[in-house]
TrEMBL record:
<dbReference type="GO" id="GO:0009223">
    <property type="term" value="P:pyrimidine deoxyribonucleotide catabolic process"/>
</dbReference>
<feature type="active site" description="Nucleophile">
    <location>
        <position position="7"/>
    </location>
</feature>
<protein>
    <submittedName>
        <fullName>Putative 5'(3')-deoxyribonucleotidase</fullName>
    </submittedName>
</protein>
<dbReference type="InterPro" id="IPR023214">
    <property type="entry name" value="HAD_sf"/>
</dbReference>
<dbReference type="InterPro" id="IPR036412">
    <property type="entry name" value="HAD-like_sf"/>
</dbReference>
<feature type="active site" description="Proton donor">
    <location>
        <position position="9"/>
    </location>
</feature>
<dbReference type="Pfam" id="PF06941">
    <property type="entry name" value="NT5C"/>
</dbReference>
<comment type="similarity">
    <text>Belongs to the 5'(3')-deoxyribonucleotidase family.</text>
</comment>
<dbReference type="InterPro" id="IPR010708">
    <property type="entry name" value="5'(3')-deoxyribonucleotidase"/>
</dbReference>
<dbReference type="GO" id="GO:0008253">
    <property type="term" value="F:5'-nucleotidase activity"/>
</dbReference>
C-alpha cells in the first residue's frame, strides 16, 4: 500500500475558526477568515504577536477544534486503499500533545494510533504523499506534496493544490 501523510491544523482540524473567535472576543475585534487571505493573524496585528501565539500554548486549545468538512469520510475511504499517517508539527506547541492525541482518538478513532506522528521537521516523514497547508513542509519531503488550501497559502503555485476533502477524494480517484 502507498502511504499518505496528513497534517492536522487547517487540514483535518479547523484551527482558524477557534483562534479567530477567541481573539475577537478578547480584543473586541471582528476579524474574519476572509481577512486572513494571503496573511496570518499575527501579521495583521503584529503588536499582539505573543498574545496571538499564546492561545496555542493553552493545553486545551486543540482539544475541541471542529473537524474539517468531509475529512472523516474521505480518510476512512482512503484508508481502505492507502496506509494513512497523521503527521503534525506538534513540537511547535508541546503543550498541545494530549489535546491533539485525544482529538484524534475522538474524531479519527478508526485509524491506528501507531500511525499518529507528532514531529517537528516533516522531512523525516517517509510517505508517498503529504497533504499539508504549509508548503515549507514539502521542501525536504521525498514524496508528492499536496497543498491543502488555507487563507495563508492562496498565492502558492509550486504544488498540486486541493481546495477541500472532496477534491482530495477526486485526486486519489476512488
Ligand atoms: Mg497545518
Amino acid at each position: 500500500m502507498k502511504r499518505i501523510a496528513i497534517d492536522m491544523d487547517e487540514v483535518i482540524a479547523d484551527f482558524n475558526s477557534k483562534h479567530l473567535r477567541l481573539f475577537n472576543r478578547d480584543y473586541n475585534e471582528n476579524i474574519t477568515i476572509e481577512d486572513l487571505r494571503e496573511t496570518r493573524l499575527r501579521l495583521l496585528r503584529p503588536h499582539l504577536t505573543s498574545e496571538i501565539i499564546n492561545y496555542l500554548n493553552d493545553p486545551t486549545f486543540f482539544r475541541d477544534l471542529d473537524v474539517m468538512e468531509d475529512s472523516q469520510e474521505v480518510i476512512q475511504e482512503l484508508s481502505k486503499h492507502y496506509e494513512i499517517f497523521i503527521t503534525t508539527a506538534a513540537m511547535e506547541h508541546p503543550s498541545s500533545f494530549n489535546a491533539k492525541y485525544e482529538w484524534l482518538k475522538e474524531h479519527f478513532g478508526f485509524l491506528n494510533e501507531m500511525n499518529f506522528v507528532f514531529c517537528g521537521n516533516k522531512s523525516i516523514i517517509h510517505a508517498d504523499y503529504l497533504i499539508d497547508d504549509n508548503a515549507r513542509h514539502f521542501e525536504g519531503f521525498g514524496g508528492q506534496g499536496i497543498l491543502f488550501t488555507a487563507p495563508h497559502n492562496l498565492v502558492e503555485t509550486r504544488y498540486v493544490r486541493v481546495n477541500n476533502w472532496k477534491e482530495v477524494k477526486n485526486y486519489f480517484i476512488m
